[in-house]
Write a structure and sequence with these properties.
This protein is mostly beta strands and about 675 residues long. Helices cover about 0% and strands about 55% of the residues. The protein is flat and about 125 Å long.
């Protein structure tokens, strides 16, 4: 095997050596004595260095080659050197497994001063590891210890694996698997080692694991099972905590009879019934012995306890003192667990059960207290309720930021903590309400708030941005990732000079109305109810800069969401570039094959209102009123087939004489024979 490996490496032109082989490299001396190389023929390992030393009173050299002819390629060639001189060469990048001849140039013919060197791969020792037992493992006297080793040899075969304990050879295994079992091991600490030996006699470094063997320890219970009282149908569990070496096993018993399958430290009972009531215990055992737990009883109780409040301030008492004392009695046929007082949602426990008392400080403001008793089974008595108000007043600070006022005037007034009060912000002329600071729902001018300590409310007023951008807005919405009938539609709304608006939404074959008010930043979210359909949520963002006249946002409903875009409508004659009025015929055709789909007429009046009438090539008619935007765009939406078929997009009438009115229109249909086409709008002028 090793000879084959050397020939294979040499045939492949492999001349490298491993780092491990370099670490084992040696220096070999060849003397030049009596006109001979001594020794004449030499075998060395890859990475070894050969040093030639001249002991003759003449000059010699050493050259790789035969009969005075250097090898090709030349491996080494020394200069001529005299008595005491030396020349060294390290055999790292030289052929492996082949005899390399060499000679002395002045003396090879007359004295036959020749030699040879054969370079071989050194034998690599085998490797061994111990898989079982693991290092640090613990065993109990009497346990069997399974031993398993793994061995391999990269350049030969494993002849044997020697297993030793505490330095004493136990067994030599010659064939895999390399396993054995140690039996009857006494208490103590042990060191197990494994050494592999290959077919050339090389030994591995030992693999070592340490393990210990201890005496068994009988079980001891450190936590006994406890008595239980539960309701009928409830789940419960008995539990025991025990120690021992080896770890103990468990057998639960009911009325001194083993319970089949109940062999864990916890015994679970689900859906407790009267037949489950009785005495339970558990036997804990291991090889060193056993012990019995104390008995524990299970009792079932479905009768709730009683509860009576005997000492209390009057219900609905308005108090100037925070401290309150409540007291009473409670009873149960088996036993009480606790008396609970739930104050403003937080559970508190009274002192005592049969006769109980509770004293605590109430927080400022209204307080709701629910009282009841709980028995050992978890049954709860009937509830009692008390309501007390700890009256504490604190001054309110009300501020304004900008021209405006707040009514009523509660600034620096002492108000009762916990009570609800209301304020209304009134903007000055030319200003609008810009939001509250210090209270939730701050975008509404009228606000209700719960009084609290150190409360500061600020009403902000800003210059009215809606005075210059009021008017009618119209536009479209659809899913830009894929136009669909159910998520496409038309909207229009009118915004007044203070941001209030009302309008309509046409989608899925129906029209729905909505109204609302933009906040001071031009944002609003409005729910829109639809007859026999799920409501949609309309999110609108209005450009307050008075530069674009643009409105955008989203329309969402259930599983779909569509992008919305709209523009403020203008009178054609007042646009920055005057827009045309009058009638203009147009046609719609498919973008992919120019097939005519529909024809119609657009009538634009002087107020920017556009009336679109026409019919599809296969008969259905359409009729809608829309609006003109400053750049001549006109939102176009037609719903057909009860909302399952839709035409949607933007026409442009900036110049009715242009041959093209729009290229960004869509015609879609849902259902089994659904389709989706892009359309072009063209002038139909003769």
């Amino acid at each position: 095997m090793k000879q084959f490996l050397m020939l294979l490496l040499a045939g492949l032109g492999w001349f490298g050596v491993l780092d491990a082989q370099r670490a084992l490299s040696a220096t070999v001396i060849v003397n030049m004595s009596g006109y001979q190389f001594v020794p004449r023929d030499l075998t060395i390992n890859v990475g070894d260095t050969v040093t030639w030393t001249n002991l003759d009173f003449t000059t010699h050299d050493t050259v790789s080659g035969v009969n005075g002819i250097p090898s090709n390629p030349l491996i080494w060639k020394s200069p001529l050197f005299g008595f005491g001189g030396r020349y060294s060469f390290t055999f790292t990048n030289t052929p492996v497994g082949k005899r390399i001849p060499y000679y002395c140039t002045p003396h090879w013919r007359t004295f036959g001063m020749i030699g040879s060197i054969t370079v071989v791969v050194p034998n690599a020792p085998p490797l061994v590891s111990i898989d079982s037992p693991t290092n640090g493992a613990s065993f109990i006297a009497g346990d069997d210890v399974f031993v398993q080793a793994f061995a391999s040899d990269s350049d030969g075969t494993v002849a044997r694996v020697d297993l030793s304990v505490n330095g004493n050879l136990l067994l030599s295994l010659t064939n895999p698997p390399y396993t054995m079992t140690l039996t009857n091991i006494a208490v103590g600490s042990y060191s197990l080692s494994a050494v592999a030996v290959d077919n050339q006699g090389a030994s591995s470094s030992p693999a070592v694991v340490n393990f210990g063997v201890g005496p068994p320890v009988p079980p001891a219970i450190i936590s006994q099972p406890q008595n239980l009282v539960v309701r009928v149908g409830a789940s419960n569990a008995f539990a025991v905590v025990a120690t021992g070496v080896p770890p103990p096993t468990y057998q639960w018993r009911f009325e001194n009879n083993d319970i089949p399958g109940a062999t864990n430290s916890v015994y679970q009972i689900t859906n407790s019934q009267p037949t489950d009531a009785g005495t339970y215990s558990v036997i804990v055992s291991n090889r060193a012995g056993f012990t019995n737990s104390q008995p524990a009883t299970l009792r079932l109780d479905s009768t709730p306890p009683t509860f009576l409040l005997t000492t209390s301030p009057p219900n609905f008492d308005r108090r100037r003192s925070s401290q309150i004392t409540l007291a009473g009695t409670a009873n149960d046929d088996i036993g009480l667990a606790q008396v609970e007082l739930i104050i403003n949602g937080a559970t508190n426990l009274a002192v005592g059960t049969t006769n109980w008392v509770f004293t605590n400080d109430l927080p400022a403001g209204p307080n709701a207290i629910l009282l009841h008793s709980v028995d050992l089974a978890g049954n709860v008595s009937s509830d009692d309720f008390r309501f007390f108000t700890y009256v504490v007043e604190a001054p309110l600070t009300v501020r304004t930021n900008g021209p405006g006022s707040v009514t009523p005037d509660l600034d620096d007034r002492d108000l009762e903590i916990g009570q609800v009060y209301g304020l209304r912000a009134v903007p000055g002329f030319g200003f609008i309400f810009g939001g509250w600071e210090g209270v939730a729902n701050s975008n509404y001018a009228s606000v209700n708030f719960v009084m609290q300590s150190n409360l500061v409310l600020t009403a902000n007023f800003i210059s009215n941005p809606f005075a210059t951008i009021n008017g009618t807005y119209a536009g479209l919405f659809y899913d830009t990732n894929g136009v669909a009938s159910k998520s496409s539609g038309f909207f229009s709304l009118h915004v007044d000079g203070f941001g209030a608006f009302s309008g309509g939404l046409v989608v899925d074959g129906g029209r729905s109305l909505f109204r609302g008010r933009f906040d001071a930043h031009g944002h609003v979210k409005v729910p829109v109810l639809r007859r026999q359909l799920a409501p949609v949520v309309l999110t609108l963002n209005l450009d307050l800069s008075n530069t674009t006249g643009r409105m955008d946002g989203q329309v969402t409903a259930g599983q779909w969401s569509a992008e919305l875009r709209g523009d403020r409508c203008v009178f054609p004659a007042l646009a920055s570039s005057p827009l045309p009025t009058g009638a203009g015929p147009f046609l719609l055709r498919r973008h992919d094959n120019s097939m005519e789909i529909a024809r119609g007429v657009a009538k634009i009046n002087p107020f920017g209102r556009v009336r679109l009438r026409g019919s599809l090539s296969d008969g259905p008619k359409f009729n809608m009123t829309t609006f003109l935007t400053p750049n001549g765009d006109c939102p176009f939406y037609v719903s057909l087939q009860v909302g399952s078929e839709t035409m949607i997009g933007w026409l442009n009438f900036a110049n009715v004489s242009t041959p093209v009115y729009g290229t960004n229109l869509f015609w879609v249909s849902s259902g089994t024979n659904g389709f989706s086409f892009q359309l072009d709008a063209l002038s139909a002028q003769p």
